[in-house]
Amino acid sequence: MTGIHLAFLVVTLSTAAINVAGAAADLAGARLVLESSAQVGVPRSWLPWLAALKLAGAAGLLLGLLDTTLRPLGAAAACGLVVLYLGALAFHLRSRVLYNLAFPGFYFATAVASSALTVSS
Q1: Which of 30, 29, 46 is nearest to 88 (CA)?
Q2: In the chain, count of helices (H) and strands (E)?
Q3: How many angstroms separate the CA atoms of 80 and 85, rounded?
Q4: Are 64 and 73 in contact (CB under 8 A)?
Q5: Which of 52, 35, 53, 57 is nearest to 44 (CA)?
Q6: Tens digit of pLDDT for each residue in 25-38?
Q7: CA 45 → CA 18, 32, 38, distances in Å?
Q8: How many percent of the chain have pLDDT more than 70?
Q9: CA separation (Å) from 120 to 7, 29, 75, 113, 115?
Q10: pTM
Q11: What residue spans define the domains of the chain?
């Protein structure tokens, strides 16, 4: 296994795990999620939909690991997560809630890394 393949595996698995955990927090109505979403103007009714997008992204990433023929699905999932977290960053910037910008920024970075490694591997 080459270094790029190992990086692809580790980053993709990490990104999938992070998104599953984020979706679980959304679905559980975690206090941090509820407070943050209220501050940036995301209605509570959106949380199940956002959780579904995160779970779909994680599933697509994992399926993309299974076989090279499914790699385009993994790439599409990574790109979808990039767009999702661009939206999260935009909501934070628009509402000037910058103290916790690191959370969507980190999720965005993992999605970008997964996207880049999916394409390059």
Answers
A1: 46
A2: 5, 0
A3: 9
A4: yes
A5: 35
A6: 999 999 999 999 99
A7: 22, 16, 11
A8: 100
A9: 11, 37, 10, 10, 9
A10: 0.93
A11: 3-120
